[in-house]
């Protein structure tokens, strides 16, 4: 409910992660569609680059103005920082403040005078400006560092390397905001070179108990994790894709022409299979090496048909086995009867 500097930089990191998620998702989708020769449809989505720019811009960003307030001479308070925000960001469509030049929030009683609000990609968040300047400074006085470095205890000495007289730097140490911004930039650069996977965790209730589902809590998490946006981006393309060989191997029992063995290219076998099942043409596309299925319900239908077919095949195998077992027993008994009859006739 009360958000300060810590939550502000956490949400800034979330904005950057959401931005790289959208970019990597669309980039990966587009590259695969082009590579497979699939027609690409442009996806409309909210690009949160404008929010990232509001926070990290080197001239007019909130972090830059916070650093400027921390470094400038004179009396510096959280109120002067808010005044600066109200002047620079007043017209920004994702910034809201009661005291800004923009008069549209003058009568907004839900927004206190000592707060500002940012429209993040997942929703609006209100920040208490109190403590922003002090938390951003994050200063440790130089004489304290030198005193701790002179301690006889090796651990304490190692914790304060900046107190070493040989390494004294008269330059002002970087602020917490600038350090975090640099860390986020390094993280983004690292992620750009990787193929990241995303796992979103949802808490069903606050009690950590089983069989309790709080719908309001789950909806709140879904909204603020941006899951709806992510799902919409994914569903705009094809929900499922698979190379022809494993696809034919998995579903070949659904068609008499491909079961039990298909002699020919895997793509041709998949085409025969889908035509036999009468799947609408708009539900799938054939790539150069993969089959693309648009909606999950088509995949669910295939899985359901496969499940039923496996049950039928299992019944068929069981029937043949029971028949073979009974016939084997019958033939054994018949041979035994012949032997017994022949011996009895000879005896008689």
TrEMBL record:
UniProt keyword annotation of Nucleotide-binding present: yes
Alphabetized UniProt keyword annotations: Actin-binding, ATP-binding, Calmodulin-binding, Motor protein, Myosin, Nucleotide-binding, Repeat
Region of interest (Actin-binding), residue spans: 184-206
Listed GO MF terms: actin filament binding; ATP binding; calmodulin binding; microfilament motor activity
Gene3D superfamilies: 1.20.5.4820, 1.20.58.530, Kinesin motor domain
Domain of life: Eukaryota
Family: Belongs to the TRAFAC class myosin-kinesin ATPase superfamily. Myosin family.
PROSITE patterns in the record: MYOSIN_MOTOR
A Pfam family annotated for this UniProt entry: Myosin_head
Domain Myosin motor: 1-307
UniProt xrefs under InterPro entries: Kinesin_motor_dom_sf (IPR036961), Myosin_head_motor_dom-like (IPR001609), P-loop_NTPase (IPR027417)
GO biological process terms held by the UniProt record: actin filament organization; actin filament-based movement; endocytosis
Species per Swiss-Prot/TrEMBL record: Grantiella picta
Keyword hit for Hydrolase: no
GO cellular component, one term: cytoplasm
Full protein name: MYO1B protein
């Amino acid at each position: 409910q009360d958000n300060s500097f810590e939550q502000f930089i956490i949400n800034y990191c979330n904005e950057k992660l959401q931005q790289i998620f959208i970019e990597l998702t669309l980039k990966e989708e587009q590259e695969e569609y082009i590579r497979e020769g699939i027609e690409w449809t442009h996806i409309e989505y909210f690009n949160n680059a404008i929010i990232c720019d509001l926070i990290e811009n080197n001239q007019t960003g909130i972090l830059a103005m916070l650093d400027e307030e921390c470094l400038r001479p004179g009396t510096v308070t959280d109120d002067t920082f808010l005044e600066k925000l109200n002047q620079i960001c007043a017209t920004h469509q994702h910034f809201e403040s009661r005291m800004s030049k923009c008069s549209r929030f003058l009568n907004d009683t839900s927004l206190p005078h000592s707060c500002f609000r940012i429209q993040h990609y997942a929703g609006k968040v209100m920040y208490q400006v109190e403590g922003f300047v002090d938390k951003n400074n994050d200063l440790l006085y130089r004489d304290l560092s030198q005193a701790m470095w002179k301690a006889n205890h090796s651990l304490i000495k190692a914790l304060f390397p900046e107190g070493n007289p040989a390494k004294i730097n008269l330059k002002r140490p970087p602020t917490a905001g600038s350090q975090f911004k640099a860390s986020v930039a390094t993280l983004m650069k690292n992620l750009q070179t990787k193929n990241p996977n995303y796992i979103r965790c949802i808490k069903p209730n606050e009690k950590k108990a089983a069989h309790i589902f709080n719908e309001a809590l789950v909806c709140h998490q879904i909204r603020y994790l941006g899951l709806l946006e992510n799902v919409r981006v994914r569903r705009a393309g094809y929900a499922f894709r698979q190379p022809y060989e494993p696809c034919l191997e998995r579903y070949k029992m659904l068609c008499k022409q491909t079961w039990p063995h298909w002699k020919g290219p895997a793509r041709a076998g998949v085409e025969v299979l889908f035509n036999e099942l009468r799947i609408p043409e708009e539900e799938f596309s054939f790539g150069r090496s993969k089959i693309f299925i648009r909606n999950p319900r088509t995949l669910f239908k295939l899985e359901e048909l496969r499940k039923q077919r496996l049950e039928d095949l299992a019944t068929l195998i069981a029937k043949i086995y029971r028949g073979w077992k009974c016939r084997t027993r019958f033939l054994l008994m018949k041979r035994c009867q012949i032997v017994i009859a022949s011996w009895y006739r000879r005896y008689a």
